[in-house]
Specification:
692 residues, alpha/beta, six-stranded mixed β-barrel, 24 helices, 18% strand, globular, binds iron/sulfur cluster
Length: 692
């Protein structure tokens, strides 16, 4: 029996754990003393590993390469040589006929690791010749990255997960940490125990609201109005830090003019929050000796999300809550390595280390390192995954190479996504399970899973952590970066790596932000937060020390703008708001947690729709009764789940169910900057199903 130190593959909390292995099987997981979890795990950490023992509860593991030679035909098992040759031939033909930009790629924010994401973006840029590489950050915290880059200069969490418990005020908005990051929620509890004031802004009375000092039960879809009102109060009541604003920020006059129209008394009806509560929240936030703002997808999955993130960063700037310990802005990233996928340049606008693809000097540096002609590198920003359905229908994208993503489950407006997949000429899926997306592939390239390989993940607070291989893969599968390397070589670009560390070291040499984060420094339990620019540096627990912002002027940029309503509001035909949320026992598209017995037992299909009992009674819907939930885009079966914590006029569904997939109902309304969909808001109706 042996114990292997690894990192949980689910959320961005980055909990270190040990997998106990005997005779090639995982027996159990134990918590390890990691920087972010300090010997604790949530239920997904403790019970989210048994898919590695091939439990086959939800979907079969992908065990060998498969090719479907004709659309609608059957999969045929083939050798790796044939799968690689066939895939390369098809990609080459599409590139020759339609140009390099006709091919789209994804990296993966899940268990594959940073090294693989580095290799995937290199494949797109050096082998195919475009910047069409993106990841699921696009549908979650893309607005946090764009909003924070614009206001503060860096798109990541400014502080550390460990810092949260030492902050004296936590302003938590659109973030249900008890369900999405339970170990981060523990930090919130500890902060409360240490005397912090907790202010929660959320339409639901979520778990954190139960321990909060103030719960602002905001109406769905009006975050910008509330954040503007917060700014209004800070200025009108002279609660802001005048010296800090004068020294370290720009744009105050324009900001003040913009929030002048958002007196709390004028937005009471819109937000559903009393002026007294709004004012009290800002008195609490501004008077605390240290204050931290935390947010999740209740902020980012709206058509006006980037603006709201900029507004939240402005609250921190107005009160000087940046640039020191125990304060800051914390977009808590969702999947375990979504921060890492962005760090590694799985973004259409940035090379690894947040270096712009439009900068000729940056392109020249990467071209020289990769042995290609800089003139042949794509100088333009590539496509985003949320744009793909439209680009396919416009004839601009013909092939889609998807690694460790399941867009046919996780993207908004699934009928639109399906129609795009029908129109694609060639789909390659590289994954561990037969997901909804894999079912539509022309080629399936089966890869090793978390547990079957090692590497480095980035957790939500910019911390690089190593994870180790626990068991040998049982099937005819390969490491993700090995598959990509074979394809690159077949396409005429010889690519070979001996191991993860060789890839990591190549990446470090090209990324000043990460240069000092060596494998040796990370060790078994190390957590090295970037920027880590020298071999001597221990990393950076909080950003903007000395209030030096990484914006072009070096100053924080204050920002407010007019609130915009969501794209589709309730009406007589579709009278309820649908908001997508999390289920604590499952993660993402559920391909991994759905194959774990203990987690599957907690929650199974069909999914549920949370509804206030008053709304349910008015509709004649009983608790646990089957219902149809319909929007203008589709209709799914679900199970009504009475919940008095739900606000009237809204219902809530989680997106991982195959039966009752709520993304059949959701709509796009992409944020104009980040292209993130508005999956937190669309109009639906409910109908009881008579089960007699
Ligand atoms: Fe930690 Fe998140 Fe894993 Fe739970 S799911 S153990 S909070 S990393």
């Amino acid at each position: 029996m042996k114990k292997i130190t690894t990192v949980c593959p689910y959320c961005g909390a980055g909990c270190k754990m040990k997998l106990v292995v005997d005779n090639g099987k995982i027996l159990r997981a134990e918590a390890a003393d990691g920087a972010t979890n300090q010997g604790e795990l949530c239920l997904k950490g403790y019970y989210g590993w048994d898919f590695l023992n091939d439990t086959k509860l939800l979907t079969p593991r992908l065990t060998q390469p498969l090719i479907r030679r004709e659309k609608g035909g059957k999969f045929e098992a083939v050798s790796w040589d044939e799968a690689i040759r066939y895939t390369a031939q098809r990609l080459k033909a599409i590139k020759q006929q339609h140009g390099a930009r006709a091919i789209m790629h994804t990296g993966s924010s899940r268990g594959t690791g940073n090294e693989t994401n580095y290799v995937m973006q290199k494949f797109a840029r050096a082998v195919i010749g475009n910047n069409n590489v993106d990841c699921c950050a696009r549908v979650c915290h893309g607005p946090s990255v764009a909003g924070l880059q614009a206001t503060l200069g860096n798109g990541a969490m400014s502080n550390s997960i460990g810092d949260i418990e030492n902050s004296k005020c936590l302003l938590i908005i659109g973030y249900n940490c008890a369900d999405s990051h339970p170990i981060v929620a523990r930090r919130v509890l500890k902060a409360k125990e240490k005397g912090a004031q907790i202010v929660v802004c959320d339409p639901r009375r979520i778990e954190t609201a139960r321990i909060a000092d103030q719960h602002l039960q905001i109406n769905n879809g009006c975050n910008m109005a509330l954040v503007n009102a917060f700014g209004h109060v800070l200025i009108e009541e002279n609660l802001y830090d005048r010296d800090y604003v004068a020294k370290y920020t720009e744009g105050f006059d324009a900001y003040r003019r913009q929030v002048a129209d958002y007196a709390p008394e004028t937005v009471e009806q819109l937000t559903g929050v009393s002026a007294r509560q709004i004012r009290q929240a800002m008195r609490t936030y501004a008077s605390a000796p240290s204050a931290t703002i935390m947010w999740g997808m209740g902020v980012t999955q709206f058509g006006q999300a980037v603006d709201v993130v900029k507004g939240l960063a402005s609250l921190a700037l107005l009160t000087g809550n940046l640039g020191r310990a125990n304060v800051g802005v914390g977009p808590v990233r969702g999947q375990n390595n979504v921060q890492g996928a962005c760090d590694m340049g799985v973004l259409p606008n940035e090379f690894p280390g947040y270096q712009s693809v439009t900068d000729p000097a940056v392109r020249a540096k990467f071209a020289a390192a990769w042995g290609i002609d800089a003139a042949g590198m794509d100088p333009d920003v590539g496509y985003r995954i949320t744009e793909v359905p439209h680009l396919v229908h416009e004839g601009k994208v013909k092939a889609y190479y998807i690694m460790g993503e399941d867009p046919l489950q996780t993207e908004a407006d699934l009928s639109l996504v399906r129609s795009a997949f029908d129109a694609l000429e060639f789909i390659v899926v590289q994954d561990i399970f037969m997901t909804k997306t894999a079912e539509r592939a022309d080629v399936i390239l089966p890869s090793t899973s978390w547990g079957e390989h090692g590497g480095v993940f980035s957790c939500a607070d910019r911390g690089f952590q190593r994870f180790e291989k626990a068991i040998e893969p049982q099937y005819n599968v390969k490491r993700d970066w090995e598959i990509i390397s074979l394809l690159a070589t077949e396409l005429g670009y010889p690519m070979h790596y001996e191991d993860n560390q060789q890839i990591w070291d190549e990446m470090r040499e090209l990324c000043p932000l990460f240069y000092g984060a060596t494998y040796e420094k990370m060790g078994e339990l190390g957590h090295i937060q970037w920027p880590c620019t020298t071999l001597e540096s221990p990393g950076t627990p909080y950003l903007y020390q000395g209030n030096q912002f990484t914006t072009p002027s070096g100053k924080g940029q204050l920002f407010a703008t007019t609130w915009r309503a969501p794209a589709e509001v309730p009406d007589a035909a579709y009278p309820l708001v649908l908001c997508t949320v999390r289920e604590v026992g499952h993660y993402s598209c559920r391909s991994m947690t759905g194959n774990c017995a203990a987690l599957q037992t907690l929650a199974d299909e069909p999914g549920f729709v949370q509804i206030n009992p008053q709304d349910a009674a008015a509709l004649g819907v009983g608790d646990q009764q089957l219902v149809w939930v319909a929007s203008r885009r589709g209709k799914v079966i679900s199970r009504a789940n009475y919940n008095e914590r739900i606000n009237l006029g809204a219902v809530y569904m989680t997106y991982q169910w195959w039966i009752g997939a709520c993304n059949e109902l959701t709509q796009e309304n992409l944020d104009p900057i980040s292209k993130t969909p508005e999956t937190k808001y669309c109009a639906v109706k409910l109908e009881a199903i008579d089960d007699q």
